[in-house]
Amino acid sequence: MKHVNNQSINMSQSEKILNSAFKCIATKGYANVSLRDIADEAGVVLSQLNYYYKNKEGLFTEVVKMLSLKYLNEIEDTLKNGKSKSEKISSLIKYFQQMLNKNPELFKIFYDMTSMALWSTYLKDLLNDLFNKLTFLIEKYVINTDHYKEKFKEYSSSALSRMILGTLFGTSVQVILADSEKKDIAESLGVLRAVFS
After folding, report:
1. Which of 119, 135, 137, 183 could be a cystine partner for 161, CB 3.0 to 4.6 Å?
2. Please, what sign has the CA dihedral across residues 192, 195, 196, 197?
3. What InterPro entries does UniProt report for this protein, alphabetically (predicted)?
4. Which domains does the chain have, with CATH numbers?
5. pLDDT per residue of the chain (197 residues) written in tens, 0 to 9
6. Rounded CA separation 3/67 (Å)
7. Using the 8-state DSSP alphabet, how is residue 140 labeled?
């Protein structure tokens, strides 16, 4: 019994550190955050971060895994909404618009980890896996219909799905970077509705 209690305390500490890392990276960016910052935010000693995650890259890798799972689950749940394919694409666009308004930190970390993946083989593999799974979800719930196959017959469903994903993320980064035109840029996501209606 005592062993189980220690294990649940360890899991709790590990999750606390992970959530603190997410918060710190979202606020300052990966390059500007030290392990000391994360330990202070989590209210733990620095050695606990090393115990659970070995180093900053190990911790960041776990943040990437956590975010990937969050993105995949939320986007699949979003794509399951709506009866028609146009309702599904509308739900996906609405999800991105709401995330940009309510939780832009999630996008900031995503873009931060994308730039890191250019230099880290392991992060590159994780991010490629995320992109492939997101592409598959869009293909499965939106693109794979006779209507779209006929309308865009010269393109593969995978290519169309990647175009949608690229448009959503690319436009989202413009919203995050913009100061005065955020609403206008965020509304440009709606153009996808017109293309796929």
Report:
1. 135
2. positive
3. Homeodomain-like_sf, HTH-type_Tx_Regulator, HTH_TetR
4. 1-54 (1.10.10.60), 63-195 (1.10.357)
5. 444 444 445 558 888 999 999 899 888 888 899 999 999 999 999 999 989 998 888 898 898 888 889 889 999 999 888 788 778 888 888 888 888 888 888 888 888 888 888 888 888 999 999 999 999 999 898 887 666 667 777 888 888 899 889 988 888 888 888 866 666 666 777 777 777 66
6. 30
7. I
